Amino acid sequence: MPHSARETGKILARVNRLKGQLDAFAKAVEADEDCYQVMLLLASCRGALNGLMGEVVEDHIREHIVEAENKKLATAAGEDLIEIMKSFWK
Amino acid sequence: MPHSARETGKILARVNRLKGQLDAFAKAVEADEDCYQVMLLLASCRGALNGLMGEVVEDHIREHIVEAENKKLATAAGEDLIEIMKSFWK
Amino acid sequence: MPHSARETGKILARVNRLKGQLDAFAKAVEADEDCYQVMLLLASCRGALNGLMGEVVEDHIREHIVEAENKKLATAAGEDLIEIMKSFWK
Amino acid sequence: MPHSARETGKILARVNRLKGQLDAFAKAVEADEDCYQVMLLLASCRGALNGLMGEVVEDHIREHIVEAENKKLATAAGEDLIEIMKSFWK
């Protein structure tokens, strides 16, 4: 199912930012920097990944469930989301 | 929006089970039981609450978004879910 | 390992508050209240349980790892915490 | 506080693997692949980041709290961990 170029661009920008944050974390580990700073960098990576997950799921709800062309597609997209969400309720 | 008595019954049964697990945890804290056992009981409460959250969200996706009577109701239910999910991406 | 009565009291008060929040959620489900309100009540239960988990883990770190009487007890308490934390990294 | 080269190596290997998984996700987004597959790739990134967080926290508990040279350092490392964990209980 096609996504808008704008939405795709936003997601790719988030991925690049997250990769930059992971590099900063790796650098701090290699330089044996203060543990608290190292853990803080990793916690910020986790926040960024959760934000990315939120963006993708929101897009899925809006574009593929609510705006589905018919009930059959909406049902399939709804079940896809439920399957993915299960990893969060464990 | 009305839910089936069966779905409501399943959710209330989960709430009762969780309250029982919380009582077991509180008892273990009061009896000053082994810390690992105490933390394990609380982790199982957390698992039960996550399972309950999953049940409620799945029901919301299926009954209120996919099966909404019209696009306006589906949109509103989708935005409700997005709002709730935000607390998970933080 | 004994805990202070004050710490035990704080934890039991949190459990009671959480049980009250679960009752409010169950009541809202039974009354078939607005779905968003129902999900919000459950999200607040989840926040309360996470806060309780945090309280218990903080107490464990302070009292049973940092303040352990000897290295052997500290090691055992540290491994207990690691085991419990694993359910959060999955 | 210095970490073993072996532990540092393990963490850097995990970072590289995670960056590879993020690239696979970005590629799938760009190719407009099936939404379920895209969300699954991102969920696996989240699993990998949680595993990395677990590795770093376990190392911190073992090396900087349990094995701290004195009580003052253990206390400081314990409070650092508590601070970091707070982002998980929210």
Tell me about this structure:
The structure is a homotetramer of 90-residue chains. The first copy, chain A, is mostly helical and 90 residues long. Chain A has a single domain (5-89), classed as Metal-sensitive repressor, helix protomer (Methane Monooxygenase Hydroxylase, Chain G, domain 1, Up-down Bundle), CATH 1.20.58. Chain A is built from three helices and no strands. In chain A, helix 1 packs antiparallel against helix 2 and helix 2 packs antiparallel against helix 3 (71-89). Chains in contact: A-B, A-D, B-C, C-D. The interface between A and D is large, with 39 and 40 residues.
Largest interchain contact: A-D, 39 and 40 residues
Could you report the average pLDDT of chain A, rounded to the nearest whole number? Answer: 92
CATH fold assignment of chain A: Methane Monooxygenase Hydroxylase, Chain G, domain 1
The CATH architecture assignment of chain A turns out to be Up-down Bundle
Give the termini distance of chain A in whole angstroms: 29 Å
CATH level 4 superfamily of chain A:
Metal-sensitive repressor, helix protomer
Q: The biggest beta sheet of chain A, please?
A: none
Shape of chain A: elongated
Domain tally of chain A: 1
| Tally of individual helices of chain A | 3
Our Rg estimate of chain A from Cα atoms comes to 17 Å
Low-confidence stretches of chain A: none
Output the structural class of chain A. mainly alpha
Please give the CATH class of chain A: Mainly Alpha
